[in-house]
Hints:
The protein contains three helices and 14 strands. It has about 240 residues and is of the alpha+beta class.
Amino acid sequence: MMKKLLFLCTILFVSVVFLCSTTPAQATAFTFGDDAIYWPGWDNGTVEDSIDVLGVPSITGGSGTIDNGILTEVIFDYASNDSRLRAGDLFIDLGADATWDYIVQAKTGSQYALGNPVALGSDSYILSEQAWGAQGGNIRNEHPAYYDFNENDNPVLINEDAALTDFTDLTGHVVFANLDLDLMQAQDFIIGFTTNCANDVVYERVSVPEPGPMLLFGAFMIGMATVGRKKILNSKKKN
């Protein structure tokens, strides 16, 4: 009996060490689709606002990575392109409460936290007709593309290390990498993104993924060891 108890205690100890050693390094991936036509509150009452994709690009969704509670990468997948297309800013809404908390500037790679989260209906945006700056092509007029910083938003520079892979004919992906956005234990967040012409707008809710398989395995081992130990102790009491 003593040997069994010692064995189970050893399993419990090893499982705890395993769990603690793997937790900080856990990076979890998530995916999202492209279900929204535009951000809530930006319907201009035009026929165009009933169409998900106007011409190109066709953004099909994307994926991202969360590492120890930090959003480190967001990837947007697209199926068509135009050489005049440029990525808009990346917007993040913690808690999915219809206010932007983080903005990553596409042009500079700078990452900001907004001291005063900005509502979706704010006028602090550079709209598509200003951002397009090209002749011809379809444009979803009067829709946000970039953020126009306002001192009242109290923007705090997080870092300037974001690397952006913009629209190209070769990759089929727009990648915001080297991000350092703390999700602050939020269970859900919204990703907002579009192009300089706002022809296909991403507004997708993401649920923070559960711990990875290895983390769950460690927790399972702890549970099994604990149950086994209790059974042994109960058996000793009966005897």
